[in-house]
Design goal:
By secondary structure, the chain is of the alpha+beta class. It has one domain: Alpha-Beta Plaits (2-Layer Sandwich), CATH 3.30.70.1290. Helix content is 38%, strand content 17%. It has 5 helices and 4 strands, in the order βαββαβααα. It has helices at 25-41, 68-85, 109-117, 119-122, 128-138, and strands at 9-15, 45-52, 55-61, 100-104. The protein has a 4-stranded antiparallel sheet with strand order 2-3-1-4, sandwiched between helices. The termini are far apart.
Length: 155
């Protein structure tokens, strides 16, 4: 076969360091646009982006040559610099290490987009921890001794 034909849909989920609610609604849309630019500049297609003050979901149509861990690392690094350099948050902003990545078929694409775009409504009834644990359960991902969440613990 002469060319590559692909259909790779991945949802990534990651949280603000220490699960602090630092993503303010006044600049959340700007952050989403910035991250969209990162994804698109790497040759991928951003299908949906959304989240809450303490975490983000990004649904991507990935090109086959892209390494997911490299892309997530670049999204986190560049968006952290963007938030801090533009002083969008009065606090030091950084993403928590690690992330979740979940693949989907074409038949699930619209439902996943809708789910991500309606995160505010979704989280009225379910916490981030509950949501993430359900995703791990649904995908039969073993947790083992892996650390799931870093939480902010005041002095």
């Amino acid at each position: 076969m002469a060319d590559t034909f692909d259909q790779i849909y991945i949802q990534t989920v990651f949280a603000v360091k220490n699960r602090q609610a630092l993503i303010h609604q006044n600049w959340e849309n700007d952050l989403h646009k910035y991250i969209t630019g990162i994804v698109q500049n790497r040759g991928n297609k951003l299908l949906a982006i959304g989240g809450m003050a303490d975490h983000i979901h990004i649904f991507i149509g990935m090109k086959p040559a892209e390494c997911l861990s490299d892309m997530v690392r670049e999204i986190k690094k560049s968006s952290t610099t963007y938030v801090n350099d533009n002083k969008l948050s009065p606090f030091d902003f950084n993403w928590q290490s690690g992330y979740g990545a979940f693949s989907y078929s074409r038949s699930h694409r619209d439902a996943v987009c809708k789910y991500i775009l309606h995160q505010k409504e979704h989280h009225r009834t379910r916490t981030y921890e509950e949501e993430f644990m359900k995703m791990l359960h649904d995908y039969e991902i073993e947790i083992g001794k892996k650390q799931l969440f870093d939480f902010f613990v005041p002095d």
